[in-house]
Input
Amino acid sequence: MRPRLEIERRLGTSRRIMLLASILSIALALLMIALVFWGYGVDPIYAYEKIFVGSFGSIFGLSDTIAKAIPLMLCGVGLAVAFKALVWNVGAEGQLLMGAIAATGVALYVFPNSPALVVIPSMFAAGFLSGAFWGLIPSILKAKLRANEVITTLMMNYIASNLVNYLVYGPWKGLKEWGFPYTDKFPLSAWLPLLPLGTGRIHYPTLILALTLAVLTYVLVMRTKLGYEIRVMGENPDAARYAGMSYFKTAMLVMLISGGLAGLAGVGEVAGNPSHHRLRYPQGISPGYGFIAIIVAWLGRLHPLAIIPSSLLFGGLLVGGDAIQVSLDLPFAAIGIFNGVILFFVLSAELLMRYRVTFKWRREG
Amino acid sequence: MRMKGIVKRFPGVIANDHIDFDVKTGEIHALLGENGAGKTTLMNVLYGIYRPDEGEIYVRGKRTAIKSPKDAIELGMGMVHQHFMLVYPHTVSENIALGLSSSRFFFPVQEVEKGVAELSGKYGLKVDPKAKIWQLSVGEQQRVEIIKALYRGAQVLILDEPTSVLTPSEITDLFDVLRRIAKEGCSIVFITHKLDEVMEISDRITVLRHGKVVATVEPYKTSKRELARMMVGREVLFRLKKKPVERGEVVLEVRALHALNDRGLPAIKGVSFIASEGEILGIAGVAGNGQRELVEVITGLRKATEGSISIRGHDVTNCSPQNIIDKGVAHIPEERIRVGLVPNMSVAENLILKKYRYPPFSDKLFLKIAFIGQETEKLISEYNIITPSKENPAKLLSGGNIQRLILARELSEKPCLIVAAHPTYGLDVGATEYIRSLLLKQREMGAAILLVSEDLEEIMSLSNRIAVMFEGEIMGIVSAERAEIEEIGLMMAGAKRMTAAGEGSP
Output
């Protein structure tokens, strides 16, 4: 007797199977990472306990988790729209930074003395436009020069990152910051209000914005003409062309939405995160939210509403990562391994969704 | 090879209902039936793509479980699918080397190339081993599929609708090849719904209807009429009644049109013709003589390099596809699943593929889901689309129903011009008859129809005038009443050209 895998194509993928595949891929990833912990000489169960308690187990941990989930949710929902249309935006990180720059410009230079009711909406509007603009450049390059958006969006990240560096070391360098690469603190009117909960880091206007936009994006994809075009283009680009849909028009709108949402995330970070309230060097603003959001989007199977729990999970991982770093003396890079392994399993689970895999014992001979 | 009591169920249907089927060594066994009768499902079970819910398969007397195409290939089966399973950006040889267990890890293609040349020489299956698949015509792609199966040493060769894309002379060649293969001891399963071919080539015929075997007969003991009755379950009209329709105003005018193919070579070289209201203009010709490119240029999917196209007097040369759709041009595409359908989306969403833009299907921003639902129900019943529901993914429909869906979408908007490319390719007698009658009805309603087909009988029976294309040129345009099949055959082969002053000018 020996085991044998049998693979048969599925006729359709039900929601139940998608959920099962997502859960299974996380479970397998956790198992895999347990081996890494073990190899590092750390008891995996103890490590997971630390991560879980650190991120979800207390009101302090939970509030940090939600705070970190906010930018992931915004970027993730935007990326899901792009990926659904087969537009491969890997530039959410740069689009987020552009949003942060725009918010800083508004807070420090455009409306330094205006009331919050003026400053805060203007910051979000400017952040959206700035992120959208950053997303639009690659799609124009694609339309005019057929430049692959994977390369261009990726490269735009570096430009945005260096632009932030230039600003905080150069013209926007804070006068009261003793030479640190920071801008001055925003005026109080530009600080987003915080929920007095746990560590008090949840800037709720951004959270409400993110949740609302997740729902609106769901409506956009399922109920609007643009959403229909996005889905047709993603399922069969040839049929989209045949039906008279314009790839470039749709791709541009998609990049606009995708970039804009990432831009909003950037506004939330600089104006909402109580440890910022200023622009600082790029790694200080975002520990790679724009990249982690790629995994968030895929784990949510590109479904805007499923991205809400998916971003919470990854927010928790980031917080838990801090926890194990402190209590187990593990390098922060361990979280990078986490993310990589989870993405690997999430993408592998595609196979399970498209094929029925059964495990059978077969007699020899 | 013997299959016993095969049952395969799909959600809502039994595709195969206790089917017994066997093939003897060196035999050509035809599997006859309408689309959706379960022929392809049965062969997919045999080839290991589906697993049967019940039933047994014996190969050379031994009970076998075929669990994947790999098992099937190891057992000496080869399959040429109706929708070709080829990797488009790769070359012929690369496609044949793909998945070959014996191929080397490095440069597997070189050794294959020799074998391909040998096989194609031996059986007269002419194809360039270095050509890329996407550059080939449908007919050539099929040859690649046959060579692929032979290269793997197939003992049982399954051909799913192999002749639908071939010209009469190519069919004769194919039949010679098949007879030669059978003589060498290879068994052939020949899936078709064309009665003439069945009578000509097969040693035995098994007729399927609604997933059941109606009968297994020998061709000399039956007749075409009897087979048709067994297949459809009723008498079939072989001749369509064409009502006389007054030719009206000119709808489509094509002038000195030039265009390139995917390889950047001239595919259309100075084509001119007109099509008027109430007229079907047939475009006959062997696949790969510029018909595909012509259809694409007219529908805006390909750029014209020279010349002009106008619809109802408006110049639409190199306009966007949407512009041309808005002018009232319907397009029934050649590759209906790859181009004409979004397989994973629902029947309803496929039906609005072209009209979602405008009221009443949508307002400025939103789709009108309720209205779309009503319209879908209406079209499903009007065009007899068999589907469990309007939310069902379109890919689960049978071939005939997919084409009904596409026609429902294209024809329901009262088009002034219908560009129909191979509208009945691969469909069964019932669906073919239905599609043809729909086209004739549109003609009666005053549409101009451009009918591109390789099925000469179809062209002859539907068209008012027939244009023959050869190597990107129109060899002549003749009226259907005066057309002789030999003359058209000669023009298709490029052996005859009519003077431009003849029937060609309106």
Notes: The first helix of chain B runs from residue 39 to 46. The domain at 249-328+415-506 of chain B is CATH 3.40.50.300 (Rossmann fold).
